[in-house]
Amino acid sequence: MVEASGMMYTNTNTTLVPAFNPSIQRNHLRLCQLPLLRRHHVQFSLSATASETSAFMETIPWGCENDSLENSSSLLKWLSQSGLPSQKMAIDKVDVGERGLVALKNIRKGEKLLFVPPSLVITPDSEWSCPEAGEVLKKNSVPDWPLLATYLISEASLKESSKWFSYISALPRQPYSLLYWSQSELDRYLKASQIRERAIERTNNVVGTYNDMRLRIFSKYPDFFPEEVFNIKSFKWSFGILFSRMVRLPSMDGKVALVPWADMLNHNCEVETFLDYDKSSKGIVFTTDRPYLPGEQVFISYGNKSNGELLLSYGFVPKEGTNPSDSVELPLSLKKSDECYEEKLELLRKYGLSRSQCFPLRITGWPLELMAYAYLAVSPSSMRGKFEEMAATASNETTSNKDLRYPEIEEQALQFILDSCESSISKYNKFLQASGSLDLDVTSPKQLNRRLFLKQLAVDLCTSERRILFRAQYILRRRLRDMKTGELKALTIFNGFRKFFK
Ligand SMILES: C[S@@+](CC[C@H](N)C(=O)[O-])C[C@H]1O[C@@H](n2cnc3c(N)ncnc32)[C@H](O)[C@@H]1O
Questions:
Q1: Of 34, 47, 230, 304, which is least packed with CB atoms within 10 Å of its CB?
Q2: Model-level pTM?
Q3: For the SET domain, which residue ranges apply (predicted)?
Q4: Taking phi first (over 0 means left), then psi (-120 to 50 degrees means alpha), and beta for anything else, what does residue 315 get?
Q5: Structural domain of residue 66, as residue ranges?
Q6: Residue 391: which residues within 8 A CB-CB, separation 6 or more?
C-alpha cells in the first residue's frame, strides 16, 4: 500500500502501478516511481513523425472493445483449466469502469479472494513463446517495463500459439489512458492542469523508449522483431496496458506483474485493499475491507493517487469530492528580478530543483517543501545565510529543521503562494467557462463522441483541482488577514503605550 505521511508519500508497496516517468520533479513528491530505462538511452524529444502520431490513433489487431464481454467467458474457461480455483466473482458489465468483477455470493469483510497462481501471472521472468527473442532482450539487459511491453506484443502477435491468447483477447484494444490523447487534445482540454505536462512527458518517454529499442535491438534482429509488429502503435498499446493494469507485488520483493483476472477489478477511492502474493496459499489475493452482496461490484485500490494521476494512467476521474488522496500540482517560480536570483538558482540546482517547481496541494494542506521554496523565493539578500537550508528543505534533502519558520518573511511567503494559487485558479476558470462552447464545430458523430468524452473527463479533473485551489486560497487569505489584524493590534497597543509614556 502507498503510505501517505502528511503531504508526502513513502513509496512502499503500491499496487496497480503507473509509476514510469523519470520526472522533472523530485522523486519524493511522486506517489511512486519506477526506473524505466537507463537514462542515457532515452531520447526525450518527441521524435515520432506526424504519420506515427496519427498511427497512435489506430487500433491493434488483437484485444477487444473496452466494454465488451465477448472474450471474457473464454478467459475464465482458460484460467480455470490452467489452475485458477473456483471464484466468488464473475466478469460483468458494471456502472463504474464498464467491465468489472461482481460478487456471485455473499462476501464477508476480511475474506481473501482470487488465489491466482504464479503460473498465470506475467512477470519479467515469464517464459517467451519465442525464446530467442527473450534471450536477445535479456542479453541487452532491457529493464522490466520495456521488457514486459515487448513481451506482451510478442505474445499477442503469436495469437493462438501463445499461452496468453485468451488473456490478451480480453484486454482492451485501446486502453483508456492519456497516452491516447493527441497533443492537440491535451492542449485543448488540459491546458489549465499540470497533468498536461506529465502526459506529454510520458508520451515522449514511450516514444523515446520505442526509438531506443528499435535502434539498439529491433533493427538488429528483424526476424524476431519485425517492424510490422514491433512498431510505435503496438508499443503504445502495450505501455497503455502496463500503465493501467500492472501491479507491484510487495511480498514478491516488489516484482512487477500482470495478473489476469485480478486486473478486471476496478478502483474505488474509499477502498483500502491491495493485491499481493499470499505465501500461505501461494497465490495472488486481496482481502476485502467491506462485505459485498451478490450482484455488487467488488473493488480494490490502485493506490493513493490524485485524480490527475488516475486520469493519466487509467483514463478516468473519480466523482468530485470522493477521492481523499486528491491533490493538485501548484507551480512556483523564482522571479528573475530577484537580486539574489543566480545565487538562489544555483542552490536549487545543487539540491536537484529548478527555477520552476511544482508542489502538491491537498484539501488538507501543503507540504513543508512548498513552504521552504516560497521562503527562498521571497527572502531578501540579508537572509543569504539561510538560503541553503531553505533550498535543502524544499528538496526534502534535509532531516533537520523540520519546523522551518522565518516569521520575518512568513507573510510574503504566504502571499507568494496565494498569488500562484490565484493565477492557477484563473486558468481553471477560463477553461471551465469556455468548455461549454468548445467543440461546437464538430459534425462527425464519432468525433463528437470522442470530444464530449474527453471534455467531460477534463471538466471533472479541472473542477476537482480547482476545488483544492479554492480551499488553499481561502486558508491563505484567512491567515494573511489574521496576520495583518495581529500586526494592527500590536501597533495599536504600541501606540497606546507611547501615548501613555508621553
Ligand atoms: C485494471 S483495469 C480494470 C478492468 C477494466 N474495467 C476492464 O474492463 O478491463 C483498469 C481500467 O478500468 C477502468 N476503471 C477502473 N476503475 C475505474 C473507476 N473507478 N471509474 C472508471 N473507470 C475505472 C479504467 O478504464 C482503467 O483503465
A1: 47
A2: 0.87
A3: 87-303
A4: left
A5: 3-314
A6: 344, 347, 348, 350, 351, 353, 372, 376
- Mind listing the pLDDT tens digit for each residue in 202-238? 999 999 999 999 999 999 999 999 999 999 999 999 9
Q: Is 264 in the pocket of ligand 1 (CB under 6 A)?
A: yes
* Cell 526534502 sits on residue: 396
In-domain check, residue 443: yes
Take atom 14 of ligand 1 and give the residue whose Cα is closest: 97
Query: Is residue 302 a known part of a binding site?
Result: yes
Helical axes 387-394 vs 368-378, angle rounded to 10°: 150
User: What CATH number is given to the structural domain containing 223?
Assistant: 3.90.1410.10
Q: What share of the chain is helix, strand, coil (3-state, %, to 5)?
A: 50, 10, 40
Q: How far apart are CA 151 and CA 124, in angstroms?
A: 8
Residue 258 pairs with which residues in a beta bridge? 122
pLDDT greater than 60 at residue 317: yes
* Element holding 260 (H helix, E strand): none
Q: Is 362 annotated as a binding residue?
A: no
Nearest-atom number in ligand 1 for the CA of 16 is: 1
The residue with cell 489476469 is 260
Between the two ends of the chain, the Cα-to-Cα distance in Å is 67
Residue 140 and residue 104 in one domain = yes
100 pocket-lining for ligand 1 (C-beta < 6 Å): yes
Q: Is residue 322 part of a domain?
A: no
Ligand 1 geometric centre to CA of 314 (Å): 7
